[in-house]
Amino acid sequence: MPAVGNDVVDLWADGACGKSRDKRFVCRVLTASEQNRLAESQNPDACLWAMWAAKEAAYKAVSRIFPDISAWPGRYETVFDQAGPARQCAGTVSTPQGAVRMHLDWDENRVHCLGLIGSAGLWQDVTADVLEPAVDVHPEIQPSAKQLSAAARTAAAAAIALHTGLPHALVKIERSRVCQRSAPPVVQINGIEEKIPVSLSHHGRFAAFAFLAPLQAQFAAMCS
């Protein structure tokens, strides 16, 4: 069963900038080898949040298959395919239920990571984007978490509609709560839940989404 996860971190958000100097936090969320990698990094904040985002993306992917899996970041370990992390690189995240492939992209403003369960060939079917929504009346004001979450859902639904060739009005992304926790988002097309793996994320100024693109032919009848 393929699955996808994604996570975005605003490197300049309150609590993110300079967090690599918080030894207590670092020891809590990173493994020993990850802490060594952080100590050797020339950009420790980006390195810390790259590993964090990779763990989060992996958890979001693997929890779709194993809903009761632990989310504790110390039980997840990132391994990049090259020293770094580089501004764009691949790697894997070891989880309590096996390895998750990941792809990392970052710049001076944010870190974004994708996690994928499935064959390497599925990367070509992953559609993802990072948005920087602005408040309409006062663009200098940072959007609220609720606004960012809505922006991620809306953008993901629009992208799925574009990919499938369906009217945007037919595509919705819903999120329920199970045992006081938010359940993974699900895609509904014309009110019916479809097995389209989708992941949403937001932090600071940014919102992001990723999904495994369905075949347009699957939904051709809905367009006729």
* Alpha carbon gyration radius: 18 Å
From the 3D coordinates, which CATH architecture would you assign?
A: Alpha-Beta Complex
The total tally of domains equals 1
User: What count of helical segments does DSSP give?
Assistant: 5
Q: Which consecutive residue ranges, at least 5 long each, have pLDDT under 50?
A: none
Give the overall silhouette. globular
Give the H and E element order: EHHHEEEEEHEEEEEEEH
Q: Major sheet: size, sense and barrel closure? A: 5 strands, antiparallel
Question: Quick check: average pLDDT?
Answer: 88
Total beta strands: 13
Largest beta sheet: strand ordering? 1-5-4-3-2
Keywords: Transferase
Pfam families: ACPS
Protein name: Phosphopantetheinyl transferase (Holo-ACP synthase)
Domain 4'-phosphopantetheinyl transferase: 4-66
Layout of secondary structure:
Blueprint: E1 3-10, H1 23-29, H2 32-40, H3 44-62, E2 77-80, E3 88-95, E4 98-106, E5 110-117, E6 126-131, H4 145-164, E7 171-174, E8 177-178, E9 181-182, E10 186-189, E11 192-194, E12 198-203, E13 206-212, H5 220-223
Antiparallel strand pairs: 1-5, 2-3, 3-4, 4-5, 6-13, 7-10, 8-9, 10-11, 12-13
